[in-house]
């Protein structure tokens, strides 16, 4: 479904992404982990069309993508942002946020589609005419996911979709994402700094460091500790140590 | 006792009625490390800030007892509070970007903090600042002292913040989500640093976080808060023996690298938790 | 529908339709606005001023330009409530009629300036690059001229009169609005919600009009209400120099300018139109402050 080859992104003098390649089969999930500044979000923004300054080759379903995308691309690929407080327009109701993609793409049946979308992300109908500031963090992220799904895309780009949420809400959102994928056959690219979150949702994980994808590893190999690159091993050790509450870190 | 809190209540008057943010929290803290864990809105930050009376002006606070080293915080005049804030008790916040002065080098900021509390000449203070930067394990402390906050990485900024808080030799350190904005590798280093400094200097520490496993690594005791109530108090090593369904739920809903689950457990909240 | 059920229908937490939600929002906004006493004072005063201007012939006893030189500069009496001016014209009548001209000019200027400034500023801020530089250099050119001089040159090139004065004032006021809107847009442009809008595939014009401009609106409204007194005074200045409203048209600024020599002996003659300007500016200011609070849904 998605093919990325030798992707490079520059910001002025510095090269933020230095030749990253990966492919995601249809209906599958690919995870990208790395620390801040590793270039993981930059890859996603280039893929989404938000940043047109890249070189290399990216293709969707065999069709090469240019720097500027047309409407049909945005119908097939959508994105969910990290901060649900920042990704919803502060002066627009949920209803307005959800109807906007329908209006842009000229999709009819607005009324029933909005109700259906709210039901799909398990939000009560009563939130429909609320403003973002009247919703909890988890509810907002559900609205953001519903908005991304309005135009019925095939691909969802997820940029740290749960890292601004409480852990109990994170679990609900991750379950929701898993359900949606199964129901709609969506293809995911998930970016996160949390190894456990990525491994939970994605069978294959790419590890980024300093703008390079230093390793692509299956989630099973990652769990079993069969990492080849030292950075992957380091991230895994930290994650495992913090997972087990009884173990003492660093001693 | 360094901190004694008995039946602390904090509420806010909103247009739609009174909102109770903290409902009867009690705790005691000596020279030890206490973790307060809870989700957003649980009242964990407000509880800790009440010790310094650093609350929004709309907050209504009441407590049977609220003392810092024997001083009644609720009755204390502002000048006594100023002597506590920053001098005897330091506060480290989530994002150092907002706590540091952007137009002053970090060395000068630390030196200023040191001089305000200890006096002395500029040169002595500058030397003290470099020493403090060394204590928070910054490589090349003399060079870093000459940098401006925007030239520091997140981890470095947090170290500088810690150095500044340590300048007046406080007895209590309150760390409010000190590492949530940092990478996992840096996060562990910073927490280890705080842990080490607190143990070595014999300070009290209140570590506030939403991350239960993380807190239990670095604290002696953990207090789990939900909707303004303390639901459970645990020794850090006993996390796996947690009794309360909320505490258990918080642990079980985490995705795990070692123990994969097809579906994550979700937390069912029971209104009965808040009774009594 | 009785009053209580109407109220319940408006205030329900779960509106059944968009129409109901929109009415509910407006009603909540009105309730919020009503709580602000000063804003209500502003609203009522503005309505009274506008109404008085509209029905001026019905509520005034004289012709605004009827002179009576025998009775010039008379103090307030029962016959002339506010006294008479230097040509013996009834001041009360002239102030009420003057509201038509002055308020009309203010409204005309605002209607021209606010949308133009918003559009230029938000386009420059959102599109950035060459468009931004070009548009902002143009606004700089207009900002560089002293306001009154530019207006004077403009009016001199056309023929003196109210219409020219309106265009001249508009021409010199819009750059401030463009700057303001651009500054707001620059912070809005990089937010995730605008990125999300771009990802729906919407074109830039749609994003600017539907998503960026509504957020710039509140600061522009505040600026407008603060500017209103300035607009009245500029109009007066132009009138005084013979470039604005032409005598015998009653216009508040011109009225002050023409009679300013009498301020020590017959103080009420220039003071009364001055008080009218003060009341109008204050009313618009209070109204604007109240509107800004209501426009921000976070306040509810």
Instruction: Describe the sheet with the most strands of chain C.
Output: none
**Overall shape of chain A:** globular
Q: What's the number of structural domains of chain A?
A: 1
| Termini Cα gap of chain A | 45 Å
Overall pLDDT confidence of chain A = 90
Helix-strand topology string of chain C: HHHHHHHHHHHH
SS strand fraction of chain A: 25-35%
Strand order of the largest sheet of chain A: 6-7-8-3-9-10
The helix count of chain C comes to 12
How many beta strands in the DSSP annotation of chain C? 0
CATH top level label of chain A = Alpha Beta
The residue ranges of chain A in which pLDDT falls below 50 over 5 or more consecutive positions are 247-251
- SS-based structural class of chain C? mainly alpha
**CA gyration radius of chain A, whole angstroms:** 18 Å
Main attributes?
heterotrimer; A: 251 residues; alpha/beta; Rossmann fold; six-stranded mixed beta sheet; four-stranded antiparallel beta sheet; 9 helices; 38% helix; C: 300 residues; mainly alpha; 0% strand
What is the secondary structure topology, with strand pairs?
The complex is a heterotrimer of chains A (251), B (276) and C (300).
Chain A: E1 2-11, E2 14-24, E3 29-33, H1 40-48, E4 54-60, E5 63-64, H2 71-76, E6 77-80, H3 94-105, H4 110-120, H5 137-149, E7 155-159, H6 167-184, E8 187-192, H7 195-201, E9 204-209, E10 212-218, H8 219-224, H9 230-243
Helix pairs in contact in A: 3-5, 5-6
Chain B: E1 3-14, E2 17-29, E3 33-37, H1 44-50, E4 59-62, E5 65-68, E6 71-72, H2 78-84, E7 89-92, H3 96-99, H4 106-118, H5 122-135, H6 141-145, H7 154-166, E8 172-176, H8 184-201, E9 204-209, H9 212-218, E10 221-226, E11 229-235, H10 245-252
Parallel strand pairs in B: 3-9, 3-10, 7-8, 8-9
Antiparallel strand pairs in B: 1-2, 1-4, 1-5, 5-6, 10-11
Helix pairs in contact in B: 4-5, 4-7, 5-7, 7-8
Chain C: H1 3-11, H2 18-35, H3 37-54, H4 56-59, H5 91-127, H6 129-144, H7 147-157, H8 162-189, H9 192-199, H10 204-240, H11 252-259, H12 268-295
Helix pairs in contact in C: 2-12, 3-5, 3-12, 5-6, 5-8, 5-10, 5-12, 6-8, 7-8, 8-10, 10-11, 10-12, 11-12
């Amino acid at each position: 479904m998605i093919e990325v080859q030798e992707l490079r992104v520059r910001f002025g003098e510095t090269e933020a992404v230095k030749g990253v390649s990966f492919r995601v089969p249809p209906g599958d999930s690919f995870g990208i982990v790395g620390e801040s500044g590793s270039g993981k979000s930059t890859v996603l923004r280039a893929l989404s069309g938000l940043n047109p300054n890249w070189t290399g080759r990216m293709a969707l379903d065999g069709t090469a993508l240019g720097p500027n995308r047309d409407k049909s691309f945005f119908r097939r690929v959508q994105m969910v942002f990290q901060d649900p407080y920042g990704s919803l327009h502060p002066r627009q109701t949920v209803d307005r946020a959800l109807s906007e993609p329908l209006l842009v793409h000229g999709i009819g049946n607005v009324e029933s589609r909005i109700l259906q979308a709210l039901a799909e992300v398990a939000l009560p109908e009563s939130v429909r005419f609320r403003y973002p500031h009247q919703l909890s963090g988890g509810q907002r992220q559900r609205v953001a996911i519903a908005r991304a799904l309005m135009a019925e895309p095939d691909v969802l780009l997820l940029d740290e979709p749960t890292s601004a949420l409480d852990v109990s809400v994170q679990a609900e959102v991750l379950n929701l994402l898993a359900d949606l994928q199964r129901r709609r056959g969506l293809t995911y690219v998930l970016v996160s700094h949390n190894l456990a979150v990525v491994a939970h949702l994605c069978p294959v994980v790419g590890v980024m460091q300093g703008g390079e994808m230093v390793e692509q590893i299956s989630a099973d190999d990652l769990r079993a500790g069969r990492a080849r690159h030292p950075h992957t091993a380091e991230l895994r050790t930290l994650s495992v140590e913090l997972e087990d509450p009884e173990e003492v870190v660093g001693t | 006792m360094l901190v004694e809190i008995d039946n602390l209540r904090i509420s806010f008057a909103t247009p739609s009625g009174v909102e109770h943010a903290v409902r009867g929290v009690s705790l005691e803290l000596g020279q030890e490390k206490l973790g307060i864990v809870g989700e957003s809105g649980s009242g964990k930050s407000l509880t800790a800030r009440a010790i310094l009376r650093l609350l929004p002006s709309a907050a209504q606070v009441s407590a049977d007892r609220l003392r810092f080293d024997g001083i009644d915080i609720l009755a204390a005049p502002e000048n006594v509070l100023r002597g506590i804030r920053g001098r005897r008790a330091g506060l480290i916040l989530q994002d150092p970007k907002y706590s540091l002065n952007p137009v002053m080098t970090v060395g000068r900021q630390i030196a200023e903090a040191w001089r305000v509390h200890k006096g002395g000449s500029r040169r002595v203070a500058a030397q003290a600042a470099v020493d403090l930067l060394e204590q928070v394990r910054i490589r090349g402390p003399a060079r870093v002292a000459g940098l401006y906050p925007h030239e520091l990485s997140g981890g470095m900024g947090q170290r500088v913040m810690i150095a500044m808080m340590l300048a007046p030799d406080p007895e209590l350190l309150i760390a409010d989500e000190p590492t949530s904005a940092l990478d996992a590798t840096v996060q562990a280093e910073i927490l280890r640093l705080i842990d080490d400094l607190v143990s070595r200097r014999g300070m009290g520490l209140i570590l506030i976080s939403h991350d239960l496993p993380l807190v239990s690594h670095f604290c002696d005791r953990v207090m789990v808060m939900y909707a303004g109530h303390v639901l459970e108090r645990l020794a850090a090593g006993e996390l796996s023996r947690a009794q309360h369904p909320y505490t258990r739920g918080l642990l079980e809903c985490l995705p795990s690298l070692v123990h994969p689950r097809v579906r994550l457990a979700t937390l069912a909240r029971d209104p009965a938790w808040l009774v009594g | 529908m009785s009053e209580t059920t109407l109220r319940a229908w408006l205030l329900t937490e779960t509106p059944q339709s968009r129409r109901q939600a929109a009415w509910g929002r407006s009603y909540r906004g009105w309730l919020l606005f009503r709580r602000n006493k000063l804003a209500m004072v502003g609203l009522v005063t503005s309505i009274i001023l506008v109404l008085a201007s509209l029905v001026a012939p019905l509520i005034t006893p004289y012709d605004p330009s009827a002179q009576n030189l025998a009775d010039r500069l008379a103090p307030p009496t029962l016959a002339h409530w506010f006294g008479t001016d230097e040509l013996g014209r009834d001041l009360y009548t002239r102030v009420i009629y003057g509201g038509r001209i002055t308020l009309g000019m203010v409204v005309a200027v605002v209607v021209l300036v606010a949308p133009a400034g918003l559009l230029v500023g938000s386009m420059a801020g959102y599109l950035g690059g060459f468009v931004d530089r070009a548009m902002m250099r143009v606004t700089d050119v207009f900002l560089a001229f002293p306001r009154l001089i530019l207006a004077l040159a403009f009016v001199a090139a056309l023929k003196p009169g109210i219409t020219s004065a309106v265009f001249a004032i508009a021409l010199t006021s819009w750059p401030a609005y463009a700057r303001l809107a651009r500054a707001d847009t620059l912070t809005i442009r990089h937010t995730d919600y605008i990125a999300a809008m771009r990802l729906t595939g919407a074109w830039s014009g749609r994003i600017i009009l539907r998503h960026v401009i509504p957020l710039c609106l509140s600061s522009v409204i505040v600026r407008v209400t603060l500017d209103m007194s300035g607009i009245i005074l500029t109009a007066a200045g132009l009138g005084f120099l013979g470039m604005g409203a032409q005598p015998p048209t009653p216009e508040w600024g011109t009225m002050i300018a023409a009679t300013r020599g009498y301020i020590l002996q017959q103080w009420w003659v220039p003071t009364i139109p001055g008080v009218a300007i003060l009341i109008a500016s204050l009313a618009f200011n209070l109204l604007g402050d109240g509107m800004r609070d209501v426009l921000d849904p976070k306040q509810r």
